[in-house]
Write the structure tokens for this entry.
Amino acid sequence: AKDMLEEAAKKNGMEVIGMPVNASTDVADAALALTAKGVDAIVQVAGNITAISFGSILQAAGKAKVPTFAFTKPQALAGAPVTLARDYEESGKVTAALIARIMRGENPQSIPIQSLNEDRLMINMDGARAIGFEIPEALSKRADQVVGQ
């Protein structure tokens, strides 16, 4: 995901500054180090270490008034102003329906592979307001979910 982010950023004239961490206890210091570098935004690339410590990222970004972008619904609900997230709840429902079909005797080989790649744009207006980050109206209208209107 980091490589794809770097490639997309480069195509759009942006630079990505990576801040690797080895443990969840490193996340707060890494986030503070990023904000000290004067970054324009923080993008939390989804991963177990940073996901469990996402509050530390939001706290550092909030103090620096830097927007945080993320990739999971819980992070949107936690305060990330803009999130492009997979809908894991919907994925669970689709998976449960497939399991039910198999349990009822349908041969798994006869069930076509389904893609669960639908992303949902989520906007957290409270998170944006907390740091003075303005969400364009056109973006909030496109959002699948807006939190804190």
The beta strands are 42-43, 68-70, 82-86, 119-124, 145-147.
